[in-house]
């Protein structure tokens, strides 16, 4: 009778909330291992509250906020009690659980040794605002719907598991085209990097057709990623059935799609099919032994604010090192941690999908010291009593941020090792994109580069500017101070290889930093230079200087290269990078009085053949130049497409196969690389400069540029109307749009307004161009107008404060650590371990971070 009364009471209590209680459906993510605002978990003192409607998890101090914002009253409270086993307990015993069906899929905290600890799990329903608690399981007393919902939440898989991919793996069948696939012997060889669609500018979601080697963008494929559908269009034209997704190629296989069968398929002969185009799957991820800096030393662990490590999720150290450096910069601290409460209060209903919220969460975790506490005295005594037992630094897990920032990215969403420099660029891009209308902390990295191009024949010059965030320094091996030692090592290595002996110990090339800087500043040849003074191809050289100096300077050493066999290789270098750096002598000077500018003319536009009349075609044929067919055949014998060889010889003025070969190497990535040579017909009709009104220029008037591209440009400080005009004039290509803005800094106000009205009827509320950002006004470059990007110019004197090092054979393997100078001491961050660094290996870094010294 008592149980029946209790069941009736609980049923009546839950009746008002029944419409808000949901059973997780397929695709719902249940966040029952970590709070979306903090790193609280079921093992935390206050446990974790899971909303029974949204299935988001909240720590004790954040659950009230969600209740007030949504009115959702019913939460499941999860608590894990971790206890040390009683003396004499059998090692490896099965952990005791108070309730058998609780937390069946909850990941154990790996900081605890399962042989020394046991776990007791506890769950209950909590009804807000009165905090009425109902212990679980309570099958007999609870309504059936509530029981089903609770059971589903408790047994739900991790929010980060890819259930869809697992189900696909069971259903994918071998393609009927795999065994008899015909591959054209057309000489196509796929480069190891720099891919882009042959028909558009897309560099992601690219597919390699296994018949003819065409690299094209995808659309509507089984992974749901987008594109312009050129791979599908290619199949409709050619009926070549199989394509492989470029970003998924590993030694274990690759994602293959059959257009004819309209589904993802297996290709048992994928290795042979890829090798036809020069791709060696087995060599792509070749590992060498690691050499961790300061390995073998007993380093002193440090704790507290700013000394919290980042857990490695499996090949995620590239993310951890970049995040550690970013949150050592005051601007990032102020933006995300200083505004923590405002960001949390105004977060969307699903904070796990909000960039600012997840950055604030991770920044607070690193800087608060809550997750980096030194051991208590009692623990220290216990450590002495237990030999070999050490207090483990836990660190924070970046799992939620990684899932967000890598979503849709073919590389960062995988579990493979990635390039820390590429991830830094990715993060800066995300910060830019998510800072529209507010302070942009990545302003500290932005600077302007002045590029001076000179026509070698006329000696006339052109000055342009571009935005950049990082300086890439070449590492000239020929400048190594131990060249004799390197030559001797190479001789021994070859001898050992010929005699089938073990190779000698590798020798590190020691290159002076001054040589790297000198190589960066030296003039470089401009491939395929078109002189507007001559209105013809000519030789040109380019030099780069700083138009402005950033507040924080990022230097990347070019340590990585690719072999012709697709094997990524790392150069073994040591560079004496200085603690203090003065780049003042590299400040740009602009056009000099003794220099004469090149005319502001653009190369003639090449029109497709189907847009020309017969008369124009005959005129072009009459003007066909002499082409050295012997040089063409010499290049074609190397395996390059015949039409590409003809263009190379033509554009280098029949100056020999060597010059033509250099042209081919510089233009292999262009979408029209292998298309037939077409002459500049537009030059016959109009010798003047081409504009966006030409048949091939710009975006059609009815098509507005993507809002995302507009936001990226406006976040850099460009006016919205000017950004729209630049994107329209360059077919929505961001890189070309930036160049266009610098070439056309002054536009008629009426024209800009008309373009803005035509492209976007929304009001222009861009805070950057309206000067609402008071934080950076005082540091803006004085010569930057309203149409220029926002830069924090100042003296070019810097001090080193951080560097990221890589150990391993390539960016696709190995391990990253970072060193950061804090409170006058160098600290090494190696995943979750944070220690004082005794001998920071500054000469072995990959990415270096400098902060500007004050003018005083």
From TrEMBL:
<feature type="domain" description="UBA">
    <location>
        <begin position="704"/>
        <end position="744"/>
    </location>
</feature>
<keyword id="KW-0863">Zinc-finger</keyword>
<feature type="binding site">
    <location>
        <position position="200"/>
    </location>
    <ligand>
        <name>Zn(2+)</name>
    </ligand>
</feature>
<dbReference type="InterPro" id="IPR013083">
    <property type="entry name" value="Znf_RING/FYVE/PHD"/>
</dbReference>
<dbReference type="GO" id="GO:0016579">
    <property type="term" value="P:protein deubiquitination"/>
</dbReference>
<keyword id="KW-0833">Ubl conjugation pathway</keyword>
<keyword id="KW-0788">Thiol protease</keyword>
<dbReference type="GO" id="GO:0006508">
    <property type="term" value="P:proteolysis"/>
</dbReference>
<protein>
    <recommendedName>
        <fullName>Ubiquitin carboxyl-terminal hydrolase</fullName>
        <ecNumber>3.4.19.12</ecNumber>
    </recommendedName>
</protein>
<feature type="compositionally biased region" description="Acidic residues">
    <location>
        <begin position="748"/>
        <end position="760"/>
    </location>
</feature>
<feature type="active site" description="Nucleophile">
    <location>
        <position position="317"/>
    </location>
</feature>
<dbReference type="InterPro" id="IPR038765">
    <property type="entry name" value="Papain-like_cys_pep_sf"/>
</dbReference>
<keyword id="KW-0479">Metal-binding</keyword>
<feature type="domain" description="UBA">
    <location>
        <begin position="626"/>
        <end position="667"/>
    </location>
</feature>
<dbReference type="GO" id="GO:0006914">
    <property type="term" value="P:autophagy"/>
</dbReference>
<dbReference type="InterPro" id="IPR001607">
    <property type="entry name" value="Znf_UBP"/>
</dbReference>
<comment type="similarity">
    <text>Belongs to the peptidase C19 family.</text>
</comment>
<feature type="region of interest" description="Disordered">
    <location>
        <begin position="748"/>
        <end position="792"/>
    </location>
</feature>
<dbReference type="Pfam" id="PF02148">
    <property type="entry name" value="zf-UBP"/>
</dbReference>
<dbReference type="InterPro" id="IPR028889">
    <property type="entry name" value="USP"/>
</dbReference>
<dbReference type="Pfam" id="PF17807">
    <property type="entry name" value="zf-UBP_var"/>
</dbReference>
<dbReference type="InterPro" id="IPR016652">
    <property type="entry name" value="Ubiquitinyl_hydrolase"/>
</dbReference>
<dbReference type="GO" id="GO:0008270">
    <property type="term" value="F:zinc ion binding"/>
</dbReference>
<feature type="binding site">
    <location>
        <position position="230"/>
    </location>
    <ligand>
        <name>Zn(2+)</name>
    </ligand>
</feature>
<dbReference type="InterPro" id="IPR050185">
    <property type="entry name" value="Ub_carboxyl-term_hydrolase"/>
</dbReference>
<dbReference type="InterPro" id="IPR041432">
    <property type="entry name" value="UBP13_Znf-UBP_var"/>
</dbReference>
<dbReference type="InterPro" id="IPR009060">
    <property type="entry name" value="UBA-like_sf"/>
</dbReference>
<dbReference type="InterPro" id="IPR015940">
    <property type="entry name" value="UBA"/>
</dbReference>
<keyword id="KW-0378">Hydrolase</keyword>
<dbReference type="InterPro" id="IPR018200">
    <property type="entry name" value="USP_CS"/>
</dbReference>
<keyword id="KW-0072">Autophagy</keyword>
<feature type="domain" description="USP">
    <location>
        <begin position="308"/>
        <end position="853"/>
    </location>
</feature>
<feature type="binding site">
    <location>
        <position position="197"/>
    </location>
    <ligand>
        <name>Zn(2+)</name>
    </ligand>
</feature>
<feature type="active site" description="Proton acceptor">
    <location>
        <position position="815"/>
    </location>
</feature>
<feature type="binding site">
    <location>
        <position position="217"/>
    </location>
    <ligand>
        <name>Zn(2+)</name>
    </ligand>
</feature>
<feature type="domain" description="UBP-type">
    <location>
        <begin position="173"/>
        <end position="281"/>
    </location>
</feature>
<dbReference type="Pfam" id="PF00627">
    <property type="entry name" value="UBA"/>
</dbReference>
<dbReference type="InterPro" id="IPR001394">
    <property type="entry name" value="Peptidase_C19_UCH"/>
</dbReference>
<keyword id="KW-0862">Zinc</keyword>
<dbReference type="Pfam" id="PF00443">
    <property type="entry name" value="UCH"/>
</dbReference>
<keyword id="KW-0677">Repeat</keyword>
<dbReference type="GO" id="GO:0004843">
    <property type="term" value="F:cysteine-type deubiquitinase activity"/>
</dbReference>
């Amino acid at each position: 009778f008592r149980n029946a009364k209790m069941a009736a009471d609980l049923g009546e209590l839950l009746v008002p909330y029944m419409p808000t209680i949901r059973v997780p459906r397929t695709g719902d993510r249940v966040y029952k291992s970590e709070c979306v605002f903090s790193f609280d978990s079921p093992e935390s003192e206050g446990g974790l509250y899971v909303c029974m409607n949204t299935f988001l998890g909240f720590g004790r101090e954040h659950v009230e906020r969600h209740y007030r914002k949504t009115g959702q009253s019913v939460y499941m409270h999860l608590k894990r009690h971790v206890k040390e086993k009683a003396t004499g307990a059998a090692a490896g015993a099965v952990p005791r659980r108070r309730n058998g069906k609780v937390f069946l899929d909850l990941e154990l905290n790996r900081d605890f040794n399962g042989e020394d600890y046991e776990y007791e799990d506890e769950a209950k329903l909590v009804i807000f605002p009165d905090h009425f608690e109902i212990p679980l399981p309570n099958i007999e007393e609870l309504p059936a719907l509530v029981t089903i919902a609770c059971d589903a939440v408790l047994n739900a898989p991790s929010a980060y598991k890819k259930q869809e991919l697992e189900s696909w793996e069971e259903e994918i069948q071998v393609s009927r085209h795999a065994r008899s696939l015909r591959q054209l012997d057309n000489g196509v060889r796929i480069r190891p990097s720099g891919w882009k669609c042959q028909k558009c500018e897309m560099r992601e979601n690219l597919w390699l057709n296994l018949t003819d080697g065409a690299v094209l963008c995808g659309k509507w494929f089984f992974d749901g990623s987008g594109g312009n559908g050129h791979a599908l269009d290619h199949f409709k034209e050619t009926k070549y059935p199989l394509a492989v997704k470029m970003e998924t190629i590993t030694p274990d296989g690759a994602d293959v799609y059959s257009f004819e069968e309209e589904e993802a398929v297996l290709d048992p002969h994928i290795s042979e099919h890829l090798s036809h185009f020069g791709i060696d799957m087995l060599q792509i991820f070749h590992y060498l032994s690691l050499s961790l800096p300061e390995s073998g030393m007993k380093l002193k662990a440090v704790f507290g604010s700013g000394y919290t490590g980042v857990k490695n999720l499996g090949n995620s150290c590239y993310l951890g090192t970049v995040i550690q450096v970013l949150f050592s910069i005051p601007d990032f601290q102020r933006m995300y941690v200083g505004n923590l409460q405002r960001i949390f209060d105004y977060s969307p209903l699903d904070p796990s999908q909000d960039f600012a919220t997840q950055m604030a969460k991770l920044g607070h975790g690193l800087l608060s010291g809550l997750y980096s506490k030194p051991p208590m005295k009692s623990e220290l005594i216990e450590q002495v009593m237990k030999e070999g037992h050490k207090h483990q630094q836990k660190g924070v897990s970046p799992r939620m941020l990684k899932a967000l920032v890598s979503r849709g990215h073919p590389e960062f969403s995988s579990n493979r090792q990635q390039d820390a420099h590429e991830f830094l660029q990715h993060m800066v891009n995300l910060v830019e994109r998510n800072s529209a209308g507010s302070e942009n902390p990545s302003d500290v990295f932005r600077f302007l580069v002045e590029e001076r191009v000179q026509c070698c024949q006329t000696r006339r010059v052109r000055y342009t500017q571009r935005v950049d965030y990082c300086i890439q320094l070449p590492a000239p091996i020929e400048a190594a101070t131990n060249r004799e030692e390197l030559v001797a090592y190479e001789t021994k290595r070859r001898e050992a290889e010929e005699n089938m002996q073990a190779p000698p110990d590798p020798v590190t090339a020691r290159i002076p930093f001054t040589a790297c800087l000198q190589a960066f500043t030296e003039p470089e040849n401009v491939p395929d230079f078109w002189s507007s003074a001559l209105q013809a191809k000519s030789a040109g050289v380019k030099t780069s200087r700083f138009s402005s100096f950033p507040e924080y300077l990022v230097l990347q050493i070019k340590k990585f290269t690719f072999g012709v066999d697709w094997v990524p290789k790392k150069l073994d270098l040591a560079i004496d990078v200085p603690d203090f750096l003065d780049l003042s002598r590299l400040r740009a000077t602009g056009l000099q009085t003794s220099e004469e500018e090149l005319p502001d003319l653009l190369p003639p536009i090449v029109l497709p053949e189907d847009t020309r009349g017969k008369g124009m075609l005959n005129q072009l044929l009459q003007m066909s130049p002499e082409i050295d067919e012997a040089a063409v055949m010499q290049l074609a014998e190397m395996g390059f497409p015949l039409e590409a060889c003809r263009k190379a010889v033509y554009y280098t003025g029949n100056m020999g196969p060597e010059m033509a070969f250099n042209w081919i190497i510089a233009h292999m990535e262009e979408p029209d690389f292998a298309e037939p040579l077409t002459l500049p017909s537009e030059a016959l009709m109009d010798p003047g400069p081409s504009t966006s009104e030409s048949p091939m220029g710009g975006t059609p008037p009815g098509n507005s540029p993507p809002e995302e591209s507009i936001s990226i440009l406006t976040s850099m400080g460009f006016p919205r109307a000017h950004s729209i005009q630049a994107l329209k004039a360059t077919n929505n290509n961001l890189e070309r749009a930036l160049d266009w803005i610098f070439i056309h800094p002054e536009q008629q106000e009426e024209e800009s307004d008309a373009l803005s009205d035509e492209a976007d009827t929304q009001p222009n509320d861009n805070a950057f161009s309206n000067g609402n950002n008071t934080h950076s006004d005082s540091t803006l470059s004085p010569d930057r107008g309203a149409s220029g990007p926002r830069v924090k110019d100042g003296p070019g004197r810097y001090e080193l404060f951080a560097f990221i090092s890589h150990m391993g054979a390539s960016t696709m393997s190995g391990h990253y650590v970072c060193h950061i100078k804090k409170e006058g001491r160098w600290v090494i961050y190696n995943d979750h371990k944070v220690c004082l660094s005794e001998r920071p290996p500054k000469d072995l870094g990959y990415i270096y971070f400098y902060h500007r010294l004050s003018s005083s």
